[in-house]
TrEMBL record:
Alphabetical list of InterPro entries matching this protein: Ca_channel_alpha-2/delta (IPR051173), Sensor-like_sf (IPR029151), VWF_A (IPR002035), vWFA_dom_sf (IPR036465)
UniProt name for this protein: VWFA domain-containing protein
Signal peptide extent: 1-33
Residue ranges of every copy of the VWFA domain listed in the record: 311-524
Region (Disordered): 1328-1362
């Protein structure tokens, strides 16, 4: 044999090609498949066979392998197709499922894609996107504005900022504790009066009249802010101390002075619960209101009395001696004790029958007590609920043996010594023994085990009893166990010290457990605290949101009276941390003395959080090597500063590696901290600032920047300060006069106060006067100083945007434009009303641009809150000003611009540039750097965006969820073997306790990715980055029908199908797994602890609502004439237009397709339900003169009836029109006076109820039926945080206090749009109703406003005269066919047969 020569991976040696063809044939299904050993499939070969292939000149192939058995198996397999194969080394391919892979890919020949040079096409596409960014978005104009402004170098003094943060938080805590102290002293004073003159008056929360309750944004529910109500235990004596009504006045004063206080309450030791403000407990959460006192704030109550760690083991008898009632009662007692304990405690729960049952097979839960984390409490609670009654006798001896073993393992230190902590066994049983000798055996076990523990264990026994059944002996046994009465059974103890005497408590009912079982902890003989205690944040189950409980025990002399508590809005406590800085080089976080994180940039804002926070260590967020040592210093030392060097994160997948070679390999990270004392003996919190020194200087706008003439500011509260041309931009209150200024919460000095106070006209006017002031004489209304300069700078783009509405080449596809600064200033055009909760820095379009500075960044598709349907946002960064200098990706970013485009515009862009994409076998697509599709043939096909709800569906994905692994599984399977192109990544989401799996694609790759040589060849594909963007262009040429590629995806939710395995080369859809906790430590499992933390999810904030009355009276900002577009391509991507081509059954093609609004024909299906639930009846579609409706045969009688009805309706209409045309609803404003319903505050408007009775006008101006459920809901299967605590001051947008409940519905059956919960009453043909689509599960950002300006021959802005002209208040008929009348008639079909 001649010496072999190494063949280049890209070589074309004919013998190698022949061998590959033979191997491919051998591995095809049906060809030699029975000869392939099963051991060689999947990963088996890959573990032993890895590297190179050599070929000699004499047709011999040598395959190297280090494993002898692998050599033999490969030899026997491969010789089937080639007799001269020699195996003696490492190979680089894998066998399994009919695939044969190596890391070589085919050359990217243009002829495979119909002559398309994909790199050249990607460059052309990049040019178009860059032009769109520069001209339509206005990025070059905005950058020129900033380049013309004066900038100055700044050097932030973070020490001063740390002082301010610490001082602010300390002051807040001190004020809260002073409030608590006042309440505590007042209760103690009242008790002294109670001794002489009993204070016992009761006002039951469960029987409060609902008429006394009013909606409150501060509390997020209906409350009575004028009184305190009580939860009274059923068995309580009527003479017990009850200070509730006497506390009302002091509670009211505190609530008025400090709106950040949510609940104030007093819990007496007898179980009476007083709470302010008064409210009815929701029946869904608390079906048994009379028993609610047993659960409300019990953990806060116990932890404030005994803040030290408690060790408790709960043992539940579930043997055959218990009746069904007794067993149910035993589980209620166990749940009560469990819910009374907190995260500082260690707990164990076991079931006892003939054997011991543990909560799980995890060794922690059957060997020792574990920290009672939120997850552990849920797990234990589920174990108790699922515990079944057994049909065997209870082995009490075994139970106590195991209980003491667990306690001993818990109390024994690592060095083998016993700690001084005490423990408690809660034994719940009937106490029935199998023999009389069992009692002595049980006491003997207790004496021996507790003696070894130096009698540090107390035992409480709870005897569950059926009412009326005597159990004398059982009670005696349980009494002796609780008292550890060894002498009664002549049992000797090995330890002479006295025992901790427990208590035996008979229980006959699950009602009033707080009075019967509530003091279970008293047998530990621990000293009660008399100090205020700040607990970790908890979810408020009543009023929603997250609160921070602070509690303080109350005493009379040494007698415990109860616990006084206040719940503080966590959003107020941490708002200084939450909105500290939007500079990527510094941020702040807040922890407690145990290193648990209260606030961190990776966590969601508390104001939008509605799930129980995960109290996890800050070390899970700060992943720098060596941070644990710094954390120890942070906890031990009251203040300090530590600097460390960490490797620079050079993200080669975003920018070419050459950009990073000029930078230092390390950066300096400094942690500065200070403990928050609040004049307490022990500081509860620690404020930490992390600053990053990357070697670049920072600049800021000079204070001399001012708003120039011609750029007058318009504030977004158009409902309070309307302009001359206020209009509706689809679903959003807007104006075309100017861009509108919005200030996020981060722009204010007191963000929490801004979010929770109601904005009024005078307040908004104060903002504008201050921001427009060039003299410096106007006082600051609470806005941060730097925001003023930002507002002056971004307002200068206004004229450019207004010009583009009329001259922009893509105006008919543009929804809106906007710009946002890191300080929270936002400008949008058209000027739009926004929700106060909106924060641009929390959106995908903003963060995507910040992560890829200098690039045109595209978001994945998402549903536009403003009504434009599915859109994609392009965004781009704006750099600090430089005069005559080029900008680079490492320059300081001062703003981010965005433009919303319709989703289908991008597919239109593809097919116009690449007509070949319309061929049946060719699929072109665009995707972002996470693999989510932006343009794809499947996203423009009819019915492609309608999510099915019926049982026979297969779980069609919404556009925002469509990933390359969903639509192109073959490509996804193949590209995962290109290790330099894509990576599957993991991160921990501590917001919803999940592990997220996602894709990250390399946008800096300067090549074409195509099929692997030994990959699936049923479809050829080519994929390449679009230069200067975060997007990719792909083309697939499918040559056959059979494809075996598959990516596992759940069609129900985002749960991964296999959470215990993730391989880089195995295709799966983006998904999530539960974040698992190590019960032994209360921390993450070691495997998951190695993952980085996920960035904060994009926030989904609903649009600011406008009352239907106002919306119906205002004209649309743009006149959209979809009928102008006569072809599908012309209609494609136009704002609010859809090409209608399928009938209502979603199958039958229309005889004459047409272009119509989305409300008439969503996703190409006539009458399909939109995501906004605002579809229009078929009657409107008649205006197109294109539809022929099918109906059942109607005989002459039916025709006569219909004719009579129509004549009658016409007569009634004419009569009413004549009678009421001069009614009070007709505008009487003088000629020339601005006729806008928004001229004044809404509180100044007359209520519609006062407009008169007998209104019979027909209001048909609007066909929209607003969704009763927001389309931005988060799927319930995901643990997301999307609910809002309150209306946040937007109640002024409707004349009534509660727009939904108090909205006026006139007694006229033909009024449309008055009742949001009813369909439009226009006559419609019967068709299958469609339920609203399920909530979107994708985590996508929403644009800052709602739909935007569009212009074309068919879409043009209304003239000022048209915009200011109000819709008259008398009879209005929409533009339908001539001589048509819409009436509310009921047609009865008569069978002529």
């Amino acid at each position: 044999m001649k010496p072999s020569n190494r063949v280049s991976p890209s070589g074309f040696h004919p013998l190698l090609v022949l061998l590959l063809l033979l191997l491919n044939a051998a591995l095809k299904p049906g060809c030699c498949s029975e000869r392939i050993p099963r051991e060689l499939s999947g990963r088996g070969v890959d573990q032993d066979v890895t590297d190179s292939v050599t070929l000699d000149d004499d047709t011999d192939l040598e395959i190297k392998s280090t494993d002898r058995s692998t050599q033999n198996r490969l030899h026997s397999l491969l010789q089937l197709s080639h007799p001269k194969i020699v195996i003696h080394g490492d190979v680089d391919f894998e066998l399994g499922d009919g695939y044969s892979f190596d890391l070589d890919q085919e050359p990217a020949y243009p002829r495979q894609m119909g002559g398309i040079n994909i790199k050249e096409e990607a460059r052309k596409l990049a040019t178009k996107l860059r032009i769109l960014s520069n001209e339509e978005m206005g990025i070059t104009s905005m950058q020129a504005i900033y380049d013309s402004l004066p900038f100055r170098d700044i050097e932030p003094v973070y020490e001063d900022q740390l002082d301010k943060l610490t001082s602010l938080l300390s002051t807040k805590l001190y004020r809260y504790i002073q409030v608590l102290k006042t309440n505590k002293v007042f209760v103690e004073t009242l008790y002294r009066f109670h001794i002489r003159y009993p204070i016992t008056h009761q006002y039951d929360c469960c029987n409060m009249p609902k008429d006394d309750l009013r909606w409150s944004s501060q509390y997020g529910m209906n409350v009575s802010a004028h009184t305190t109500c009580d939860l009274i235990p059923p068995s309580i004596s009527p003479f017990m101390f009850n200070p509730g009504r006497n506390l009302t006045e002091v509670f009211q004063q505190h609530a008025q002075l400090m709106p950040s206080i949510k609940w104030q309450y007093f819990i007496s030791k007898d179980g009476i619960y007083n709470e302010f403000p008064a409210y009815n407990f929701p029946s869904l959460l608390y079906p048994d209101c009379k028993n609610t006192h047993d659960n409300n704030h019990r953990a806060v109550y116990v932890s404030s009395l005994l803040p030290q760690r408690k060790n408790v083991l709960i043992m539940i008898d579930h043997g055959n001696s218990l009746s069904i009632t007794q067993f149910s009662l035993a589980k209620h007692i166990a749940r009560y004790v469990l819910n009374s304990l907190g995260e500082q405690d260690r707990v164990g729960v076991i079931g006892l029958s003939s054997d011991v049952m543990y909560a799980t097979e995890d060794h922690c839960l059957w060997k020792s007590l574990v920290p009672l984390t939120y997850e552990a409490k849920l797990y234990y609670g589920a174990f108790i609920d699922k515990l079944d009654k057994m049909s065997v006798s209870t082995n009490h001896t075994l139970g106590f043996t195991e209980a003491f073993n667990m306690i001993e393992n818990t109390l024994t230190k690592e060095n083998g010594t016993l700690s001084d902590e005490r423990a408690l066994v809660v034994f719940i049983s009937r106490g029935l023994l199998t023999s009389l000798t069992d009692a002595r055996d049980v006491l003997r076990v207790i004496a021996k085990a507790n003696g070894q523990l130096r009698h540090q264990v107390a035992i409480n026994t709870y005897v569950v009893i059926d009412v009326g059944k005597p159990i004398m002996y059982e009670k005696t046994f349980m009494y002796n166990v609780a008292r550890q009465n060894f002498t009664a059974y002549k049992v000797k103890t090995e330890y002479d010290a006295p025992v901790l005497v427990g208590k035996m408590v008979p229980v006959t009912s699950d009602r009033d457990l707080s009075n019967v079982v509530g003091d279970f902890y008293s047998t530990l003989n621990l000293t009660y605290s008399n100090k205020p205690r700040v607990s970790l944040p908890i979810k408020d189950d009543i009023g929603k949101g997250v609160v921070l409980p602070i509690a303080w025990p109350c005493y009379h002399d040494d007698k415990l009276l109860g616990v006084m508590g206040v719940d503080i809005h966590l959003a107020d406590v941490v708002d200084g941390i939450t909105y500290f800085s939007h500079d990527k080089n510094a941020y702040a976080f807040l922890i407690d003395k145990t290193a648990s994180t209260l606030m961190h940039p990776a966590l969601s804002r508390p104001v939008l959080t509605d799930i129980q926070p995960m109290h996890t260590s800050v070390s899970h967020f700060e992943k720098h090597p060596g941070f644990d040592l710094i954390l120890n210093k942070i906890i031990r030392q009251s203040e300090g500063q530590v600097t460390m060097e960490v490797p620079r994160e050079s993200d080669n997948t975003t920018f070419p590696p050459s950009l990073y070679t000029m930078l230092p390999k390390t950066i300096k990270v400094t942690y500065l901290w200070r403990h928050v004392s609040a004049q307490l003996e022990e500081a509860p919190f620690i404020v930490v600032i992390k600053k990053i020194d990357d070697g670049f200087k920072r600049k800021d706008l000079d204070s001399g920047v001012r708003v120039t003439e011609g750029n007058e500011l318009v504030y977004h509260r158009l409902d309070l300060l309307p302009t001359d041309n206020t209009c509706m931009h689809l679903k959003q209150l807007a104006t075309l006069d100017s861009s509108a200024l919005f200030l996020a919460a981060s722009a204010f000095r007191n963000p929490f106060e801004h979010l929770h106070q109601q904005e009024v006209k005078r307040m908004v006017q104060g903002y504008l006067v201050y921001l427009n002031d060039n003299t410096g004489l106007i006082g600051n209304p609470g806005i941060k100083e730097r925001v003023r300069n930002d507002v002056a700078a971004i307002s200068k783009i206004n004229s450019e945007w207004k010009r583009k509405v009329h001259t922009g080449k893509l105006r008919e596809f543009v929804v809106r434009r906007y710009v946002a600064t890191p300080n929270g200033a936002v400008s949008t055009y058209p000027g739009t009303l926004l929700n106060k909760l909106y924060d641009p820095s929390k959106q995908d379009w903003y963060r995507g641009a910040m992560e890829s500075p200098g690039k045109v960044t595209l978001t994945a598709p998402y549903l536009d809150p403003g009504g434009a349907g599915y859109i994609v946002t392009l965004s781009h960064t704006v750099y600090e000003g430089k005069h005559a200098a080029l900008h680079g990706p490492f320059d300081h970013i001062v703003a981010v611009m965005g433009i919303d485009m319709t989703l289908k515009y991008f597919y239109k862009l593809l097919i116009e540039q690449l007509p070949i994409c319309e061929q049946e076998a060719i699929r072109c697509f665009m995707m972002d750097d996470r693999g989510y599709l932006i343009a794809h043939k499947s996203m423009v096909e009819p019915n492609s965006m309608v999510k099915y709800q019926s049982a026979d569906t297969t779980g069609q994905k919404a556009p925002e969820e469509r990933h390359i692994s969903h639509q192109e599984p073959l490509v996804a399977n193949d590209i995962l073997n290109h290790k330099d192109f894509v990576q599957k990544k993991l991160c921990n989401s501590f917001i919803d306790r999940t592990v997220q799996r996602y894709y990250h694609f390399n946008t800096s790759l300067d090549s074409i990715v195509t099929n692997l040589v030994h990959g699936e060849h049923c479809a050829k594909y080519q994929l390449t980055p679009i230069p200067g963007t975060n997007a990719f262009l792909g083309i697939v040429n499918q040559t056959c029908e059979m494809m075996r590629a598959f990516c596992p995806c759940s069609v129900v939710d985002r749960l991964c199908l296999n959470c215990h395995r993730m391989e880089q080369t195995e295709c799966e859809c983006p998904c999530e797994c539960p974040l698992e906790i190590n019960f032994c430590t209360g921390h993450l499992l070691a495997y998951e602890d190695s993952f980085p933390s996920c960035p904060q999810f994009p926030e989904h904030v609903p649009r600011a609502q406008v009352s239907n009355d106002v919306a119906n009276k205002l004209p649309q900002c743009f006149s959209t004439n979809c009928a102008f577009y006569k072809t599908k391509r012309a209609c494609l991507g136009v704002v609010d237009c859809e090409w209608c081509e399928l009938d209502v059954d979603r199958v039958t093609p229309l005889k004459q397709p047409f272009c119509s609004t989305q409300r008439v024909c969503f996703s190409g299906v006539l009458g399909a339900q939109t995501p906004y639930d605002d579809e229009i009846s078929y009657k409107v579609a008649l205006t197109q003169n294109t539809l022929t409706f099918k109906s059942a045969p109607v005989g002459p009688v039916a025709g006569g009836i219909m004719g009579c009805f129509l004549l009658l309706a016409l007569g009634v209409y004419c009569y009413r029109h004549h009678v009421h045309r001069h009614s009070q609803y007709i505008s009487t404003l003088p000629e020339g006076q601005r006729n806008s319903p928004l001229d004044n505050d809404f509180e100044d408007l007359d209520s519609p109820d006062d407009l008169g009775n007998g209104h019979t006008n027909i209001m048909l101006a609007s066909f929209e039926n607003p969704a009763s459920v927001s389309p931005y809901r988060v799927n319930s299967t995901y643990r997301r945080t999307t609910n809002v605590e309150s209306d946040l001051g937007y109640s002024t947008m409707t004349p009534q206090d509660d727009s939904e409940q108090a909205s006026t519905t006139c007694h006229e059956p033909l009024i449309i749009g008055r009742n949001r919960y009813r369909p439009p009453p226009t006559t419609t043909l019967a068709f299958n109703s469609i339920l609203p689509p399920p909530p979107s599960s994708a985590r996508r950002s929403s644009s800052p406003s709602q739909p935007q300006a569009i212009l074309s021959p068919a879409i043009s802005p209304l003239t000022p005269g048209e915009q200011t002209k109000l819709i008259p208040e008398h009879t209005i008929i929409p533009d339908i066919l001539p001589n048509q009348v819409i009436a509310n008639v009921q047609v009865h079909m008569v069978d002529t047969h």
